[in-house]
Amino acid sequence: MDFGLFFFPFFGLGFVFYFLPAIIAAIRSKRDTLAIFLLNLFLGWTFIGWIVALVWAVKSDPPPVVHYVQR
Questions:
Q1: What is the spatial distance between Cα 53 and Cα 71, in angstroms, rounded to a whole number?
Q2: Which end of the chain is less packed: N or C, by CB atoms within 10 Å?
Q3: What pLDDT does 40 receive?
Q4: Residue ranges per structural domain of the chain
Q5: Over the stretch 10-54, which tens digit does the pLDDT of each residue have?
Q6: C-alpha to C-alpha distance for 1 and 29, rounded to whole angstroms
Q7: Which pTM was predicted?
Q8: Which residue from 29, 32, 38, 27 is spatially nearest to 56, judged by alpha carbons?
Q9: Angle of CA points 56, 57, 63, to nearest 5°
């Protein structure tokens, strides 16, 4: 029996689904991609942690604020 045929659908897709917030953050080039990944890694097993990471990954970044110094 070829276990490689069964490995990806059960375990591979599970890992992809688990790290979906980190994947979305990386694709969208979020400023806090590492923080989203770490939240997903350590608290993603709690459903609330996974939802927070997903919302954070989907939320758009505010534009950077530019401060001008007058001389």
A1: 43
A2: C
A3: 97
A4: 14-58
A5: 777 888 999 999 999 999 999 999 999 999 999 999 999 999 999
A6: 41
A7: 0.78
A8: 32
A9: 80
